[in-house]
Amino acid sequence: MTEKALRLGTRRSKLAMAQSGQVADAVSQVTGRPVELVEITTYGDTSREHLAQIGGTGVFVAALREALLRGDVDFAVHSLKDLPTAQHEGLVLAATPVREDPRDVIVARDARKFTDLPSGARIGTGAPRRMAQLNAYARAHGLEIETVPIRGNVDTRIGYVHSGELDAVVLAAAGLNRVGRIDEVTDFLSVDTVLPAPGQGALAIECTADNTELIAALAELDDPFTRAAVTAERSLLAALEAGCSAPVGALADLLADGQTVKEMRLRGVVGTTDGSTLVQLSTTGPVPRTHEAALALGRELATEMLAQGAAGLMGERAH
């Protein structure tokens, strides 16, 4: 007799289905059980409002979590950057698999790079974080750009460029990789120019806290370096008391000496969406060996950023 299939809750978008399919295959391999995808529509998928207005953080996550708690699904896959920083009662983050490319990318007309865009170029993005950093870079380098708030899936966003409505759109490299469209990218934005969202490129596999057997199986998919990095990034975000619609960028990366990983560097940025003010700092320390150490790294950097005036920049919402 074949074992009962595990039910994996996923959003219905093409990207969510692609990344959930990859996780389903991996879970099937470690558990020896078939995995079926259960499509769940979330408020973030059906609302046409801008993310910052509908509460940003959590709008894609709540329906999946409710399905988990009701027992309609056994586990769920989220883009980690969509996950609220507060731990949910009754649920555990069972695994953070190896992270994809965390960078942001540009898809522009005429295969242009960001710095080759025409004066007055209209660049679409739904993220205040991207707007703040792109506008700050443009100000610093004498470029004239206009950031335009947009929503929608990958097809919709790239469609704005093909139709000529926008000169370029900013997307996450990881998402385009997962849906097999990375060849449409015209420029990869260096993290020195635009720091990604905390947790960008990483996935979160969540299940109920009492499902010890599944937690143990899913733990095999966990990558300790990814988990340490995203824990530090999300700790920074939480300490700045910011939801995912706030203009905060963060990236923790590993600094290696040859083959040996020596340290972890955490960089953070917060800014006004027009790019006129940015607080950007970094800290480097030993690679966190515990959850508490990773949390502490994020909190320390947040404290320094708040001392530099970050708090005054957090109240902005995309208009």
- Look at the helices and sheets and give the structural class: alpha/beta
Name the overall outline: globular
* Range of helix content: 25-40%
| Physical arrangement of strands within the biggest beta sheet | 2-1-3-10-4
Radius of gyration: 19 Å
Total strand count, please?
13
Structure description:
- Residues 50-56 have low confidence and may be disordered.
- The chain contains 9 helices and 13 strands.
- With 319 residues, it is of the alpha/beta class.
Brief synopsis:
With 319 residues, the chain is α/β, with parallel strands linked by helices. 31% of the residues lie in helices and 25% in strands.
Salient structural properties:
319 residues, alpha/beta, 5-stranded mixed β-sheet, 13 strands, 31% helix
Architecture blueprint of SSEs:
Blueprint: E1 6-10, H1 14-31, E2 35-39, H2 43-46, H3 62-70, E3 75-79, E4 91-95, E5 104-108, E6 121-125, H4 128-140, E7 145-149, H5 154-162, E8 168-172, H6 173-178, E9 187-188, E10 203-208, H7 212-218, H8 224-239, E11 248-257, E12 260-271, E13 278-286, H9 291-307
Parallel strand pairs: 1-2, 1-3, 6-7, 6-8
Antiparallel strand pairs: 3-10, 4-10, 5-8, 5-9, 11-12, 12-13
Helix pairs in contact: 8-9
